[in-house]
Here is the input.
Amino acid sequence: MKGVPRWLAVLALVTATAGAILLLAGERPLLVPYWYAVPIFNPPLARLWPALIAFSIYMLAGFTLAARSRGAALLWSLLGGILLPIATLSVLGDPFEVLLMRTISNHATGGFSRSVELTPELVRNWSTYMAGWRTTFPHISISLPGWPLVYAGLVRILEQMPGLSESLAAPLRGLQCHQWGFNTLAGAQVASAWLGVLAPLWSALTVLPLFSLARRAAGETVAVHTVLLWPLVPAAALFTGTLNSPYPLLATIAVLCLWSGMTRNAGPQSAILLLLSGALSGGLIILSLALVPLLMLCGLLMLGLPWMDRAPARTNIARSVIAGVWFCLGIVMVMAIYGFFAQHSPLHVIYVALNVHFELARAYLTGVGLHLWDFILFAGLPLVMLAIMAVTGVSRRNARPEAAQVLAASLGSTLLVLVLSGTAQGEVGRVWLFFMPLVTLLAACGLSRLRSRTRAAFLISQGVWLLALAATTVPVDTWLGPRPAYSEVASRPLDQTVAQADARFGDELRLTGFQAEGTTEGETLTVVLQWEALQQMARPYYFSAVLVGPDGRVLPGVDWQPFAKLFPTTCWTPQLGNIAERVELPLGADPPEGDWWLSLTVFSMGKEGPPDYLPVTLPDGTRDRQVGIGPLHVSHP
Here is the structure.
């Protein structure tokens, strides 16, 4: 392959570097398309260090390994594909909490949350609900119920292993302990959220089929460069945890099967590979209609790949037609199976989804430029420059097309049609993430044509581009907040000595003391309960108090959620130590002066059935459903 003209490499490098500087120093809303609604984001410098250190280590070690061992480079890229997104998300806070928030969010994903109440009737009549979900489940409202069905199927499996389910659910409950709906779910349902939390792994695994595809298309050197570039793609890191994270892996496998089937001699193996590619593509469409353009890309590849061989035109056309038949058969088989079990027509759901999708009605001319920039922005301008250089100066008249040219022509034509057709309605940097591995492959072809110093400069520029986006852009909004700190809700103690107590509620809570004050005029008794969490709790418990007056009268019980649901018991951990919770209890009209007593119980509520009370154990071994607290003096002012 011919080298890149020096002037072109310098121009591309200067342009890419200037773009990265603008991201760091410019007005972010002017650089990031408006549909991401990106806020001004200036994280503390301390949050940037993990990403900077991870990137530096990856770059220094990765391309040293590339020169020595193919296996080591592949393993390093896999590790980098996992750790670089996590380090990038650390700019936003706890990366695993961010991943969980994206997984369970209605707005950012919706697959998990919609699966919680999935029923056969809901699946059967899916199309009738889609328009109503536009504001609450925006991504699910324009899709077949693929993701909810995947999560529901995973829940069915986990329900058969209750011990494992609870073990997997416990750390996730702690990460979003204040989300009421999430923490009232069963252990298997909560544990299924790991499918989204493990998004960095699914994205990183893309390097395996990508390496095989790149080696077939451009040789082993380009294949090594391809997988080492993949963790540096901003979209793969910044959008990790969304429904789009697994698509690069699955789409690359589909393209690899198609490529392998097209480049083999006609026979059973070729037919099976093409059938498998079509089936996988059909399955991806069930997960998201955003992957429909993958069909166009595959169709163009089927038309172009036969022309790489020295064969008559009639033979090449026949190969394309036969390949198309097998590919389409795979799609039809998957759709038929899906329609049989879902009991609705996928074509009708697709029709409804398109109507909902086009209600956005973005401005066409503005959208053409912004969609193109959106894709370049999240692919990385240096990467796109390298991909363009991969196909410059290599065409020769009357020569057979090279693999990179066929791939570039197919991908470029697909993107051009998508942009010019007006079918895109924003966020294509995320939506077209499944195209990014192929852009990376083309970029590696361009990288291999550069001198070593220019190559290093491009890699650093791509890394800076990634860091600049991570430090200035929050392209995914979950509409959820991070778990609160106890200091944000801690109750002010009363100005009196704490009365000691020792009552264990199950294996989860211990009452260690209390304070109380009240007056007959105020008709309210203020009680501060001192608690100790014995373990991370899986349920948001309610507290209930029944007051007994000095004259023997029993007041109606009062139930409440600790800290008014802002810091439920699912957020309480042994590491917090003493937890003081203040509650105001009504004394009724004309309360008598004297010593009152309080009967305290702790219970949880399921979706059905009576309350489930925690048993109380006293130091002498006595067991009951409640513990008496007192005397609580009510004075006359």
Summary: The CA atoms of residues 19 and 483 lie 36 Å apart. The chain is about 55% helix and 10% strand.
